[in-house]
């Protein structure tokens, strides 16, 4: 665990925040700082076919050590951190043998990580926690994933008695701004399937995510002097309000959970003449998802008919899709991960993601890619932390998946 800890602490101290406003890849130059270090390290531990392309996508191989025909599998993590919170000058704190009480992250600013608010903390009593100093995020999302994959590969190299097929690993920039999979060369990666190590709590295993779309509702009004406006003025602001009132009022993020989908209005602006509503649609179920899109158009059609002119325009853009339809036909890839967790003493927590992952994009690019826990909590903010023991478990799960993939294959023969 020493190596795991020192590796992780080194990575989080390197600022790799991505930037959604940039058009380059990686979106920030500073991501190269960690990328180059990772390449050096992959060479050092003895990985082969280590490559980094002009966009900072890193790939490497661990050759098969068996004569059996074993499918090539992959593990993927991202090395950028969220633009939502500072990742500059991260000063991680290591708390050994956590006593289950409040953790003062920052005395001067009185920033406290408390189990009264973050209840998950309680399950880690007695473990080693890595936290922030209260001024930055930690970057366990997803440097924990990166650390775990490298450490697992090193373990397999040091333990040649564990039989495995060819393993590919991939590290990407810019996941946090939704572009991690965009320039990922699936054919160069050459794996039959892969796992992103980018989940949270120990045991998480995810192969379902939202279907996602974004919509812009444009409303055209008519400004007339308010004193002479009767039957003439169309107030775009009022109309925007009417439009929103016709959406199902309980199907919003703050009132839904599990597999329940929603409409989420996240931006609105307007004058009498023009108003614009921006919202997103999320639903695990494809039929319900499509029905939500239809509803957006149906409300517009109704209001346009009422006004006998086109006052409302709807533009919908698909964002990502539920990977389930790509994973279900190859469900053994989930079963192997589940069995691996059980073999290392973890109870798998299988639940639909209320969001998307790079794995969902990769699945539709031809690389089925469920998501596995990396161990961290409270991502994208100053309360982020990760238990070292969870990271250790993730390493064991990776090793076990490699082992089981080879073992399962030999059973088939
Ligand atoms: Zn992540």
SSE arrangement:
Elements: H1 2-12, H2 31-45, E1 48-52, E2 58-62, E3 73-78, E4 93-95, E5 103-106, E6 111-113, E7 129-131, H3 140-158, E8 167-172, H4 186-189, E9 193-199, E10 204-206, E11 211-220, H5 236-245, E12 262-270, E13 274-283, H6 286-307, E14 312-320, H7 324-327, H8 332-343, E15 349-350, H9 358-364, E16 371-373, E17 385-387, H10 388-412
Parallel strand pairs: 3-8, 3-9, 9-16, 10-15
Antiparallel strand pairs: 1-2, 2-8, 4-7, 5-6, 7-17, 10-16, 11-13, 11-14, 12-13
Helix pairs in contact: 1-3, 3-10, 8-10
The protein binds zinc ion.
Description:
- Its cofactor is Zn(2+).
- Zn(2+) 2 binds at residues 141, 176, 380.
- It is found in: Cytoplasm.
- Keywords: Aminopeptidase, Cytoplasm, Hydrolase, Metal-binding, Metalloprotease, Protease, Zinc.
- One of its GO terms (cellular component) is cytoplasm.
- The protein is of the alpha+beta class.
- It folds into 2 domains: 2-208 and 323-412, Zn peptidases (Aminopeptidase); 211-320, 2-Layer Sandwich (Alpha-Beta Plaits).
- The protein is 31% helix and 22% strand.
- It contains 10 helices and 17 strands.
- The protein has helices at residues 2-12, 31-45, 140-158, 186-189, 236-245, 286-307, 324-327, 332-343, 358-364, 388-412, and strands at residues 48-52, 58-62, 73-78, 93-95, 103-106, 111-113, 129-131, 167-172, 193-199, 204-206, 211-220, 262-270, 274-283, 312-320, 349-350, 371-373, 385-387.
- The strands form 4 sheets. The chain has an 8-stranded mixed β-sheet with strand order 1-2-8-3-9-16-10-15, covered by helices on one side. A 4-stranded antiparallel β-sheet has the order 12-13-11-14, covered by helices on one side. Strands 4-7-17 form a 3-stranded antiparallel β-sheet.
- A hairpin with a 3-residue loop joins strand 12 and strand 13.
- Helix 1 runs antiparallel to helix 3 and helix 8 packs across helix 10 (388-412).
- It is globular.
